[in-house]
Every structure is written in C-alpha cells, then in structure tokens.
Design brief:
single chain, about 625 residues, alpha/beta, Rossmann fold, 7-stranded antiparallel beta sheet, globular, binds 5-amino-5-deoxy-1-O-phosphono-D-mannitol
C-alpha cells in the first residue's frame, strides 16, 4: 500500500522521484524518503510526514545530485510512522539500500537469525530485515546483487514490490515483485528506466512499460535489455513491453481543489466511457467480449458470487439487485476478506465476479485464487488496466473510469454499477428473462444517465448549505431501500472515511429494529426517497423519524412535493428507472460528504489511516 519510485538513466533523479512520489501519495502518506547516488555516495533523507515534508528536509540535508535514485511514500505496517521506520532502508554496511511495498510475514525469525550473526537493526520494520538478509546472502555466498536478491527472496514469506541498489555496483537497480504491483518504464533506446508502483510517475517520459508478474525479478541496467527471471526456478523470461494509454491530464487536478471533487464531476463522461462501444442503443446490442466469449458459463451458472471490498462491495450489492431482477440468476455478495477464509462452498458451476477499482486488493485477489482452485469461472471488473486481478481473471470488463486518485472512491463506484447493469441486461436478453420493450427502455435510459448525473451535480450549492448546518454532527444515519439500500451504505462510508464523522447505513425498514433508538432532534438522517420502488414505504419511514424529531435530509425525485412537506431539507435528482436510480442518488451523497470534510478541514484526498489500494491483508 506504499508507493515506490526508482530511476536510473541520464537525467537528474531527484525531481523525477519527488514528482513521482507525489503522484503515488494516494497509496500511503505517513512518511516518505529518498536515496540518491551521486557517483560516489548514497545520500539518504527520510521523514515522518508527507512528500512535501521530505522535499523540505532533503533539500536542506543532502546533495540532490545523481542519475540514480529510489524513493518511497509509506503506509505503515510494521513500526509506527516515524523518521527511522521510513524507507529507504540501508543494510548494515550501508552499501545496499531498498524501498519496499508489502509485508514480510516471516521477518521475526529472519531477524533473530541475522542478529545471531551480528546484524544490528535500528528500525522496527520488516524491510530492514529484508535488506540485511540480501546483504548477508550476497556476502556469504559471494553473489552478484541480482542473484543475492533472488536467493534472499526465496527465503521470504509475504508480499513485496522492491527496488534495491548497491553502491558497489552502481550501474544497476534490481526490482522484484510478489503480491504488490510494480511497473518498469522503459525509456527510449534503453537510455533510462523507471520503477514504480503504477505508471503515473513516468508517464511524461515513456509510454512503454513492463508490468512484473508475481514471483519475477528484473535486473535493470542502462543501455541493456532488462533481464527478467522467475525468482523460484531462475527461468529466463521474455519481458512484454506494453504501450500505455494513460495521459498526464488524467492524473492532474485540472483546476479542481481536490482530486475527489474532480472525480465526482468526471462521472458523466466516465459513465459514457464505460458504455461507449459496448452499448449500441439503436441496434439493441450490448457488446462485451468477456461475456460474449463465455456466455454459456454465465447462462448455465448455478449462481453468481460477487466478491469485493469497501465501495466495490457496495457496487456488488447493487449488482445483486440488478442481476437478480433482470436476469433472474441467483447472486450472492461476499466480503472478499471473509470469503477467502470461511471455506465457502464453490463449484465449477459457479461464476465468481471480482470487483476492484485498483485490481490489486489483496483480499479480493485471494478470493479469486480460491474460486479458481475450486473450478469456478472468474470474471474481473477492474478499473486499472493491466492490474493483477484483471490479469488473473478468466475474463473481465474494464470500467474505463480513468485514474481515480482520491482515496475515497467516487467515479469507480458509478462506473462499476454501469458495467454490471450492462452485464445484467446482456444476460437478461440472452436468457429471455425480460421483454424486448423492457430491454430497449433500459438501454435508452442508460444512455440518458450521464446528462442526468450532470444535472444532479448542479445541486452543489444547496448541498453546501446543508453541509454547513450539519458539519459538526457527531453521527449520521443513512437510509435507503431496494436498489438504494447499497447507496445508503456507500453514502455512510463516504462520510466516515473523509470527514471522520460516525455514520451508519441501513435499509430504511430496518430502522425500527434498532437504530430508531438513536434518533433525537440532533440526529441528521439522510433518506433516499426517490419515486418508484418503495416510495410510499420510505415516506412512512420518514414520518416515523419526524415523529421522533430527527432531522431529515431527503434525496428526492425532481418535482416531489410529499417528501418536501415532511423533510427539513431536500436534494433533487432527475427522474429515472428505479434500477438505474443508484447512478443518480449517489451523486448528492458524494458531494455532501465532500463539503462536510472540506468544512471540517479534513484532508479530503488523503484521509487519515487510509490508502487507496489495500495490497496487504
Ligand atoms: O481497489 P478496490 O476497489 O478493490 O478497493 C476496495 C476498497 O479498498 C475501496 O473501495 C475503499 O473502501 C475506498 N476507500 C472507498 O472509498
């Protein structure tokens, strides 16, 4: 969950690494560090805090010269965030230096063994153990750095993406991966190489990248081909150089105060990008190669199991309602972290859909590995192109939302729902479980959704006013029913993660089985009360809240008068089909949490304790 960046080439490494770390800061941001090789010495600077703190410190304390360097932005696993535990870490001789994203699970016995051989440790990290193990192996076996790293890694249990540099061998950097993502940018004529957790740090320098697979190690030397091997058996591999589609504009704020706000506003276009080329409304066709090529697997499936975490899990819940209602295939939704350990019953007649924005979430990866072992067909719905889950799935569909940098997921959620609606409609058509009319009505309305999302975004000022009234409330309750129950959960999660206000999402009717006890005149309750579906029932729930003096913030269909008469505040969204309504009702909840967080001076894009991509258990 940390971010790593490395450079070897002909340019000054410092600015490349600092800018790269800033772009990767969404992955972890409790401390940061850099090591630069100036042709003679390694100059290392690290600090608790953000990359901007590192910059101030490094510029004061070390020489910033050098064409080789490695940098790190941390999300602490072993050892509190402080200067000493920050990366990079030296080996005891200070010849070797490493950056690491992941967890070395067997670090304790390895540390003990190294201590018995005289190694001394200054930090509490597993990473310092790893670099000293590499040094020990290198010296003991008299090996070249690449071989020493490889041999040391065979003794390690856990996850890693690492870059290692040895000042005795200053023409190379070694990179290796197991469980944590790692990309190598290949510069023109191999005159320079970049190493990073994702491609964003090097996008302006090269569009050519090699994504390491688990269990691979690369020896990177300027002017030479990358030597890629399997760590376990030393097999020499042919590196596959992929052309990147990412551009610089996509990873910058583009005039918005925060990435989250930019990403909220990108949703109309992101949804268009999701269905573009797939949904041919006039012809009544949905083209999705991942489904077309495996249609029988889906149609003959006993059930679909959807595994995911966090916001993606909420999208899975929406999908459960949508797929069951349109395609009449039984759907079960599972937290990937629970599914992987509870010995679930899975058969080869199950289809497992894994939803993950990053495509790197450790629990979701483990869940699909389990499903594959048991013979299920695995379909990945990911946003990050080339990500691990997208590669490890049997088939899949990208959401095409573009990079999502804000830690709080926004456009990933609505585009995941869009993909899953397309899948449900496609399966329903193939099964004949909906009428032609119903099918066309859904396609036509889905095509109108981006414009309606844009209209929903115009409620911003109204939402800001409401945010100002409730920004200091210690608790919030979110209620929704049917397709909008998962939206209530998502609204509560958004508020919790970026404003640190306690919030709970509930199915509206469940309120009277417990949460109603919380309601008093101070409690804001966000109720999704759009027309259609269970409107009258939700209105009754609103009456129940009103009777207990709760403060009602209602998300209503444009023109609604009944709820308006009852609620303290209303936020309107355009009318749509019930099944598509989560794509609209989500928008005001995202904006509400955003404005409350800004008013509470919270770090919206990098909320405390969180990381964008959870690549550890
Ligand atoms: O990359 P993924 O979709 O697999 O990530 C899953 C969760 O970690 C993620 O949705 C998390 O809950 C977000 N912070 C929510 O805003």
């Amino acid at each position: 969950m940390c971010g790593i960046v490395g450079y070897i080439g002909y340019r000054e490494a410092y600015p490349i690494i600092i800018k790269g770390l800033q772009r990767l800061e969404y992955r972890g941001y409790d401390s940061a560090g850099i090591a630069l090789y100036d042709g003679k010495n390694i100059n290392l600077s690290k600090t608790k805090g953000k990359v901007v703190d590192l910059q101030k410190r490094a510029e004061q304390e070390i020489s910033l010269k050098g064409y080789i360097g490695i940098g790190h932005t941390r999300w602490a696993t072993h050892g509190v965030p402080n200067d000493v535990n920050s990366h990079p870490h030296y080996s005891n001789s200070e010849d070797l230096v490493v950056i690491h994203n992941g967890i070395i699970e067997n670090y304790a016995p390895l540390k003990k063994e190294l201590q018995s051989k005289g190694y001394v440790f200054t930090s509490d990290t597993d990473t310092e153990v790893l670099i000293n193990l590499i040094e020990y192996v290198q010296k003991n076996e008299n090996l070249k750095l690449g071989k020493a790293v490889q041999l040391a890694l065979t003794q390690v249990v856990g996850a890693y993406a690492i870059a290692v540099f040895d000042k005795k061998k200053p023409n190379e950097v070694i990179a290796a991966r197991m469980g944590s993502p790692l990309a190598i940018g290949v510069g023109e004529d191999k005159k320079e190489f970049f190493i990073a957790s994702d491609a964003s740090p090097f996008i302006e320098y090269t569009k050519n990248a090699i994504y390491l697979e688990d269990g691979e190690i690369a020896v990177i030397r300027v002017g030479k081909d990358i030597k890629l091997r399997k760590i376990a058996d030393d097999t020499l591999l042919d590196p596959f150089i992929q052309a990147l589609e990412l551009n610089l504009e996509q990873i910058e704020k583009g005039g918005y105060e925060h990435f989250m706000l930019k990403e909220i506003h990108e949703q109309p276009n992101a949804i268009i990008d999701t269905y573009r080329g797939r949904m041919l409304v006039n012809e009544g066709i949905i083209r999705m190669a991942g489904i077309d090529n495996h249609l029988e697997r889906f149609l003959n499936a006993d059930r679909i199991i959807i595994v995911a975490c966090g916001t993606s899990w909420h999208a899975a819940l929406v999908a459960e309602y949508v797929i069951e209602s349109l395609a009449r295939i039984p759907v079960e939704v599972e937290y990937a972290s629970e599914f992987r350990y509870r010995n679930p019953i899975i058969t080869s007649k199950d289809v497992v859909i894994a939803i993950s924005q990053s495509g790197e979430t450790a629990d979701t990866r483990a869940a699909i590995q389990l499903a594959k072992q048991k013979g299920a067909f695995v379909f990945g719905v990911c946003n990050v192109v080339g990500s691990t889950i997208s590669r490890e799935s049997d088939a899949g569909a990208y959401t095409h939302a573009g990079p999502e940098i804000g830690v709080a997921s926004t456009k990933a959620f609505t585009t995941q729902i869009t993909v899953l609606i397309l899948i449900a409609l496609k399966l329903a058509k193939a099964k004949g479980s909906i009428s032609n009319d119903e099918y066309f009505t859904h396609l036509q309305e889905l095509e109108r959704i981006p414009a309606k999302v844009a209209e929903a975004l115009t409620s911003d000022e109204n939402i800001k006013t409401i945010a100002a009234i409730y920004k200091d409330s210690p608790n919030f309750l979110y209620l929704g029913r049917g397709f909008n129950f998962p939206v209530a959960l998502e609204g509560a999660l958004k508020l919790k993660e970026i404003s640190y206000i306690h919030a709970e999402g509930y199915p509206a009717a469940e309120m009277k089985h417990g949460p109603i006890a919380l309601i008093d005149e101070k409690m804001p309750i966000v109720v999704i009360a759009t027309k259609k579906g269970h409107y009258e029932k939700v209105v009754s729930n609103i009456e129940e809240i009103k009777a207990r003096s709760g403060k009602i913030i209602a998300i209503v269909t444009k023109g609604d008068v009944d709820v308006k008469a009852l609620a303290d505040h209303v936020i309107e969204v355009p009318d749509t089909l019930e099944l598509l309504s989560p794509l609209l009702t989500t928008i005001p909840l995202q904006l509400l949490s955003y404005h409350i967080a800004v008013m509470r001076n919270c770090n919206v894009d990098q909320p405390r304790n969180l990381a964008k991509s959870v690549t550890v258990e």
